[in-house]
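In the current project phase, we have settled on a layout for protein records. One protein thus recorded is set out beneath this paragraph:
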Amino acid sequence: MTILNRRRTRRNRPGGPRSIYDPISFGIDENGDPVEVTLMYRNLLDGGEPGSGKSSLLNTIIGHAALCTDARLWLFDGKIVELGLWRPVADVFVGNSIGLALDKLRELQSEMDIRYTQLDAAGRRKIVQTDGLDVILCVIDELAYYSVTIGTKDEQEEFRTLVRDLVARGRAAGIIVVAATQRPSADIIPTSLRDLFGYRVAFHCTTDSSSDIILSVGWAKEGFSAKDIRPEDRGVGWLLAEGGIPRRFKAAYLTDAHIRAVVNAARRLRDNAPGDPAA
């Protein structure tokens, strides 16, 4: 058995566990219509100034995944407290240690390679829901902390290389990366990395160029700039999906009490989930 792939037989029922293959409710758009995103087979980049609403979106995504018995949570949080409330349902939680962060990213890379070897042997291109193979949701808050703030330059470079490889190759193997930064600059999010993210969300930014670093160059000139979002409009952002145009939305917000309630429900679901007969 590989390091992560506990296989289970699942049947989602009304009111029962969710699946990571299901759409995730992000919030509402300007018309009050629900904004839903299917994150499976995609990665997401989430950026904006401090206090703009990045954590609200991360908590919504993690909350959905926590209630999915076909998902594993690998959380990276340099400040520890931003995602700390989710620790009871996290399979891996990395705080302010660049060494541990690198160890865990290497594990994910190894698991990804194992899965691709298995897919190749089966003549397949990607995992599917009926495989019963757990999807790994890797959430990193914040990119800059691990890539430019702590550790040696060699460690920072290895972190950037590992994240780029996971974003580039992981999704078909069931490894989904959600990364956030409050420093939307070219040194933190180079074009070669940004363009690998199928979904990008820009919350309030101080400049058009910062907005474009998240969404892609040119959108600000077309009128889709996160600079135009007022600082007090916390949780309002632009969502860009592959092949589309940015969509303005208001992210859902979970209080600490909400998160604790979801964590308690998720623990019950996960404790009652059927295990791998071979485990």
